Batch of 4 targets.
Target 1
Amino acid sequence: MRIDIQFDFENQEMMYMRKFAEKTYWYLCGVVIFQYLMLALRNIGFLPLWTLIEYMQLCAFIPLYNFRMIPYLYDAFKPFLVSHLVLTDEARLLTEFENDYFNINYDYFGLNIAKLGQALALITVLGGIILFINIIVFVAWMIIPRDSKTGKTIGETLKQFRFNVYLRFYMLSYFDLTFFAVMKYIEGDTSTSLRKAAEIVSYIIMTLSAVVPLFIMTVVCRRFEVMKIKQAKESFNTVVLKIDKQSRWRLVVPGYFFFRRLLTACLLSMPIDNTFIFLQYVFILMSSHAYVLYLVAVKPY
């Protein structure tokens, strides 16, 4: 009976929670923007902002973990998900999949395959926008005299685009990309040409989700001694943000970031009737506590 009430969207309590979630969505958007502006103006680094976003990314999908929580909790946390930041009530792309859901739990939250595909397209669009801005900055750097104050500022900005901007964008969208890929692989429907293409893309993304973090961490480990020099670490500063460079063990932090999201995406895509569904709860609790204990014991920052 309690479950029916939770997902009865005509219920007065649910209607109230819907309005509350919509207001919370805009409030959290404001919090992220305000914190970004304040940290930028004070020039003290974006570690607090990235930490907030990274943890809220994991919290945003908690309702889908079969917790039987308030359905609209997901709607409130969407600002922290790069691809889900803008999700309309009606799907604008892949409308033929509006009635397809990964399982009943996704139906409760209105997350059909069309919306998820639309969210995945948003990641591609954002990546294209970043690339376009990079080109504009490069052109400005070529035109404006490099010895001028403006030229030096543009030059410093261009250095950030060399790796840092793309690394940060990949880190923020890593969870979404991996989740989509694993979910499509488990779903396994290749009845149409579009679904077959999605299956191929999912294989590519899953491969990259395993290889790219390993490659990044290998490069960082090999350059660890050099990165103790301020100028040398600038290209990978977003990966080793504020990490103490006295020991390679402190690189567990970015490594754990990718590992936790990879395994979380796999568990999130587990079918609702799977015998090992309880692993979702176990992993959330153990990974959270293990990370906190590591921070307390090692103090990597």
Note: Confidence is low (pLDDT under 50) at residues 1-5.
Target 2
Amino acid sequence: MLQHTECPRCHATNTGAEYICFACGAPLKPMPKRFGRQAPVSVPWPMWFGLLLLLGIAGFLGYRAIVLLAAYREIAAWPAWYLPGAGGALVIGSQIAFLIARRHDADSWRLWRAPRLPLSQAHTGDAVWTRGKVKCDSPIVPAYFPQECAYYHYVVRERESDEGGWRVTERETNAVDFELVDGEDSVYVPSGSVRFDAPVYVESYLDPSGSVQVKLWAIPVGLPVSLCARIAGETSRPRVDPLEDDLSGVVTWRSAQDYVAMVAKRARMTYLGGWTLTVLGAIALIAGIAREVA
């Protein structure tokens, strides 16, 4: 025998296996999580102490290696505070990197858990990934390129005549509210509730000599984009709010899976940078202590 569920919105009868109402699309029970990732957990303090001990041993061994390679004579003339100061600065930098990495990791996990739904199945209160085309009644046009956009960011650089490098002479970022349209459904997207991940739209030289270069990132009108945000507002005029209090929504030209993978990769690279700074800082600190003892 099939179990039945009554829709709280239109009171239509649905089978117990349904997650949304067949008649009006209202949610009948929580959506299943499509991914099996677990939330990032904090590292216990005993493990931190063990890691610091290992780093101390690595630093002492590193100093002994410096002595064996006859590099001690080269650093003997340095001030006494040089190695401890450099080590402390590196350790502080590593902790900042760890904080940033944990933030990226938490963001990627929350973005990963948001289900992917078409606009026709997203209702007020849902935090979802959806996709559609950009429609804007009052588009903005960046300098140098006559293209109607909902968001753009450009940088103008000039070549240095002496050193041959580049110097930034102009940069600008601008965004306006727009609508995300999927067939007959649409949602209003305030520019202040989302962050933009735009593709490189133009990268070229502005003069024949190649001494002035412009690079433009843009979300032009009509571009298919992915949106991750929380649906809010009235049913007749839905809008999007930030995904969570500390996490704004996302508008990206990538697919949902590619964007989440990019954020997760950024977290891994930041963790790697943090551990590299920690190891170098520990080596510098222990080398400075060993130098004073010697």
Note: The longest helix spans residues 256-293.
Target 3
Amino acid sequence: MKFFTCSLLQVFVLSTMIGSGCSSFTSESSINPGDTIAVPDYLTGEDSIAYIENTIIQSPITAEDLLSLAEVHSVEGWLGYYNNLDMAKEYPEYAERFLATAHDSASLRLANRFMRMADLVNQNGDAMDKLQWAIAVNAALDTFRAEMPALPSDSTLDEIERVTDKFSSQTQTEMNYQCRVSATVDYYRTIEAYRIWLESVPRDLSPLAQEEYIAWHDLNKARYSFWRDVSYTQGWYSMKPMETAFYYESLSRNRRAELELERGIIMNSKPYKQMGKTVTTAQWEKWITTHSVPEDADLLIELDDKDRLPSDSLVAERVGTLKATFSRWIAARQAIAAALSKEQGDAYDNLTADIHSRFIGTLPPLIPYEE
């Protein structure tokens, strides 16, 4: 067991610095100064840095906390052709694919910071920490733009996906990772849209809007966990990580579209007419019951592989969390509607009803997912 006493992990720490203590740090962070972290002996290099970070970083998390982290578990580790000189020599006609330009290297550093900060806040943070993550990402994007001034500002995020695609060897693992990167980019865009909305909402509605955001965050997490662990269990299927990422991406895109409609209702008194029928309690319960049986259940039973089916206790836990978070989200939206004028409140309630209808698939999504 190795012990490290740190003021915390610093910016851009090299994986080779891990030895008998924390030296070679280039700047300091204010997170839990003086903490002594016991690192298991089997963790070395980047893994030991990640272990310390995951141990120290706890909610509440600030943007400064995230920006001070080391760049560990780099994107390069997933990308087999990153600066592969041997491959460039063997296949000179494809040399550009195997060699990183200065632009590529800067883009990879951006991807590293983006995904590492996302991993930390997903593991150790809550809804409010996600807002700080968005602020940290904005700062990282500003730093990248300063390094690459010729790049249009509206295409900066595209660089994260471009560089992971360019250097991917297209193994299943790397394709799965690319999809997770893409879904995380869309999730950031949604959190940032919420952050901007919370800053611009009328002051008297600000506490209610914040409660709605927290309730949506928790519901979104519960809905994804329910689908991943209960209704879609194909752990033996190599495409599962890609499909779960696609699903998550679709949820993020549609929430942004809904937020734009809500902004129009609250800020500009735009009317909204309900498109679908209001979901009844019976319909909601039926949807949950139907999706509490994995879509591959019959196949697993046929293959005598019933051990892969979720346990009754897991299903009950995920269903309970889904119902509880949904109830809190509905209550938060009802509170906002009650605080608005009658016309605005009616429009907001109509939108809530349609969001619920889309939730159980009785209305098409606002932004259809394109294969």
Note: Strands lie at 2-6, 35-39.
Target 4
Amino acid sequence: MSDPIKRLLPLLLENKGLNENGIRLLQTAHAGIKRKNKSDRTDEDWFVMGYYALQTGQYDEAVSAFSDAIFENEEFEAAFRFRASAYMDSKRYEEAAKDLDEAMRLDPSYIDAQFERVRLLYEMDKDADALSAAEAFTEANPEHANGFALLGSILEKSGQYEASIPAFDRAIDLDGDNGLFHTQRGLAHYFAGKPELALPDLLSAQSRSGANQVTHFNLALVYAELPGQTKEAFRLFERAFKKDPNMLRQFASTATATESKRLIGRLNGVLTRLQNESDSTGAFYRTELAALLSRKLSGTT
């Protein structure tokens, strides 16, 4: 293996996420592999190519690269596990299940493949089965941060917001630098009707993951529910939609029916409240925010 791949592969196999240095290493390794002839690429090369494609949302390319890794090494259990993730993210659930079965056949103790089995149930909306599997998984793997985060997501998806908080607490205890976990707990607080508790988590998530349209949108949701914060809510929604004008429409079309209904319902509630308020204080930004939300919500129906 070339040096970048030799340094990178253990990080990918651990599946703990890459920091900024790891991301740069992945980009360097990917660029080096692309310069090779395809006939000269090893199973590790193809695995890195697949991982890169998976991280950038190129699911067909990821499936192809992981398939080439498996062709070179039919006992490469991690390639089966990550190809299952690519299948899952493109909603090819039957193929994902077959790959996870094969990964587990090759290594019955493969914890990440066990975790992906739970996630598959979640993605397939088999909520009761997913909850039982997640509870069993976290009991057997009490140090698996993603397992607790997934348990929290399953509970939150079914509207059990308060019950989801301890699961997210545990995930953060295990991996406090993971911005996604802070986002998940913050949104659970938000949908539980506690925006004042959501705000610190979402600010913490932004400090860890960086500011982008998603962090701006999430913070705007919370500020829109806090007294005297309409101006800040408007500015953050405006930034989010400027970076991605179609983000709300895309969410409505790709999220589960429950998730889409929940978010659109909250935004319609904010819009109704803004339109019904008559206090002259903050009227300008209240009007601007109502107009912005009305335009964006009209594209989700």
Note: Residues 212-301 form one domain.
